Amino acid sequence: MKVATITSSIKKQYDESFEKNTVRIHPTIIPFLTSMNLSHSVKQCKNIKWNKNDIEKIGQIQLRPLMAPVNHNSLDNNKTLNIVHTMLGNFCHGSKDKISHMEDMGNDTQMFIGYNDKVCFVIKLFNA
Amino acid sequence: MIRLNPKKNQTKTVTHTIFPPTDDYFSTLLSSKEFQNLLETDATTSIGMKNVAEYYKVDHIWNAFVKGTISENPAGEYFMLLKIVKIFSPNDNLWISFVEGLHRHAGILISLTCSKFDYEDNNLTHDSLKNVHFKHAGVPHFKECKLSPISVLNSIIKKEYDAPMLKNLMQVQVLYPKNKTVNIASAMKNLREMSQWISTNKKISAEPTISTRISEDLSQILTLSRASDRNSLRPKFNKETIVYQTDMDLKSFEKKCTAEGEKCAAGFPNMLTSEEYSNYIKDPFNMEITRALLLKKSPQETYTGHRAGGRHLPPYGISFKSLTEDVGVFDGKMRKIDVRHFNAYIIVPRIVYTLSAKLKKEPLHNLLGKTDEVQLIKFITRYGYATRGQPFCKLHCAYEKYTNNINSVNFVNNCDDWHRIIPVTVFLVMLFNACLMYQPNEPDNGKNLLITALQGFDYGISFTDETFMNTLSKYFGLIKLFVI
Hints:
Helices cover 25% and strands 21% of the residues of chain A. Chain A has helices at 6-17, 30-33, 54-58, 77-87; strands spanning 18-25, 36-38, 43-44, 63-67, 109-115, 123-124. Chain A has a two-stranded antiparallel sheet. A two-stranded antiparallel sheet of chain A has the order 3-6. Chain B has helices at 25-31, 33-39, 46-55, 59-66, 74-88, 102-113, 131-136, 149-157, 164-167, 184-206, 210-222, 227-230, 250-260, 262-266, 275-282, 287-297, 320-323, 339-360, 364-367, 371-384, 398-403, 421-434, 449-455, 465-473, 478-483; strands at 2-3, 94-100, 170-177, 241-243, 334-336.
């Protein structure tokens, strides 16, 4: 009889809990799908009305990305900046003779999606 | 939800819902043409930005902002669109988190917003990323460049500069809960576990082989002493002695140990029970601890002349004299240790940890100081290497006591699984010492043929860790050995 190890039981629960689907995403869409908090200068209220004068004020609002605790790892700032440098085409690489990171991605990305019913349209800018 | 960019004590969390209004919402959404078009849109082009604004139902705001003009700063426009979506969209329901590819996720966010995004603030501030941030992050072969990240990003968006990681579609596996009955806390815990395993497996498969790791360890040990000293000085071990082990059963040995104490009964050197050595075997890769041991325990005197004011550090070269007249008068039982023993005391702990980490498939730092490894090191240094009288291939009975192995193993080549570390370590130490003999022309930066051989083990052939361990731990022609 097959032994049920911790690994196999977690894998079984994982298979039972999640549907899997493979999609192709353009990297420039990823920020729009990332959950973000807005800076504290924005106050929430119920009835937002778009005001053309708010365009300039939008610039002062800051976005704060969030993630669900689904990854065992935590972000390493230096590692991320190395990846960013590669994404931007290794433009600060100073030696033609030395190797640089490959400017291409593997296919081993996996993401979890959720549905947030509290979307941002209940926010009013600079509620005085 | 937690900050993407972590703080040490992350106390504030934001709660988001996970489950959609209906169980088939995600499957319908992912298969809809409209959503697929959105996912594959290049949101940095003017058409792409328009499509995104329409999908998120903020096109009236977006149109008021762009006013039909062509901007010289498309990266700025892209960031503005992101803000408008995040502030005003009534359709921004879907959120993502990367189970695999966390750094890539953060990398994409930072690249496209040109934000410095450090640990202090979790803000994405457009155009705050500068070249100096790459310099401080230790980008390899960094050279100051006239281009700034924002100018590079604008060139990428305008297709004047090639950047496949920001312009090519990426394939992603999407996970979502099957229905609302899923226990989401336990499901997320499972995701983290899976993420950890995938990461560990990747690291293991990308790790160097046993032979490469051991050759690196031995190379580092070789730098402790200079080649010229190794091949000219013969250290004096005045107080350190060993007693040759004889065949004995565990009961008699334990009785002897109870009566005399183990050190006295077994007769191993004082150094092996010293505080410095106990610290060393718990972390032999720590050079501070290694230095503390050697400054206290390595010999000051040599047969060939003093080194002014210092200790004579291992590894030591081996000569005919160092194995004969330097060990003193041998009464058939006790003798002084020789250079081979001291070399072994230094390299055995490193080899044991390296082999154990490979066989257990665990990160090496998790094993440092663990009972299994410490006990095995003690056994090999006290009873395993060059302390054995006849029969040479037999293991000392203390093996059972030190390793808690319930399977009685009499001969060294019968060790299996994790216990193969014993014969492999002993064999490697023997080879290392053998390669320290007769090297009068050794270059100053040191050379040991075992290291060279280990470095070349996996060139051109698939030499797995299992093959390495079996090859070095088994003697398949044992019967022939005894016949001869």
